[in-house]
Write a structure and sequence with these properties.
It is built from one helix and eleven strands, in the order αβββββββββββ. The protein has 149 residues and is α+β, with helices and mostly antiparallel strands. A hairpin with a 5-residue loop joins strand 5 and strand 6.
Length: 149
C-alpha cells in the first residue's frame, strides 16, 4: 500500500486540529450558566436615554449577572444593538466576576484580573481570551427586545 503524499495528508490534519481546538473552546464556554429571560427596554424611558445615541451603553437586569446593552451603527443600521451578559466569561462564578463599563464607554472590564472586551462586538481585548456572552436583540423603532429563549 502506497503512502499518501504530504500535500494530501496535511489539509486533513489541519482540519482535524481546528475541530479539536474549537471543541476545547466550546467546552470552556459550556460552564457559563444558561439563564432564560425576556427583557424589553423602552428607549423613551429616562434610564434608557444613552441608547438613543450611537455608542451609548447601559446596564439592565436580566441574564446571569445582568446585561450590558450597547447601541452600534453597523452598515448604517440604526436599530443595531448588542446585548451581553455582565458575567465575566473567565470569572463568572467569582464575587468579582461582574463586568463594569470603562470610563470611555468603549470597553467592558472585568475587575478580577483586568480583562477588557470591546463593547462593539464583544471580542476580547488586552488579557481576555474568551468573547463576551451575547444575546440576540430585535428593535421595532422604540422598544428593544432581548432574550435567551
Amino acid at each position: 500500500m502506497d503512502k499518501l503524499p504530504l500535500k494530501r495528508v496535511l489539509p486533513i490534519w489541519t482540519a482535524f486540529l481546528c475541530l479539536v481546538a474549537s471543541g476545547c473552546e466550546k467546552n470552556r464556554r459550556q460552564n457559563f450558566p444558561n439563564t432564560q429571560f425576556e427583557e424589553y427596554i423602552y428607549l423613551n424611558n429616562p434610564t434608557s436615554l444613552p441608547l438613543q445615541t450611537i455608542g451609548g451603553v447601559i446596564t439592565h437586569p436580566g441574564g446571569y449577572r445582568g446585561l450590558l446593552v450597547y447601541r452600534r451603527y453597523q452598515n448604517r443600521a440604526e436599530g443595531d444593538f448588542a446585548a451581553y451578559d455582565r458575567g465575566c466569561p473567565q470569572h463568572f462564578a467569582q464575587d468579582c466576576g461582574q463586568l463594569e463599563i470603562s470610563a470611555d464607554q468603549s470597553y467592558a472590564e472585568c475587575p478580577c484580573e483586568g480583562e477588557r472586551y470591546l463593547l462593539f462586538d464583544g471580542s476580547p481585548a488586552d488579557k481576555a481570551r474568551l468573547p463576551l456572552i451575547s444575546y440576540p436583540t430585535s428593535f421595532d423603532g422604540s422598544i428593544l427586545y432581548i432574550t435567551n429563549r
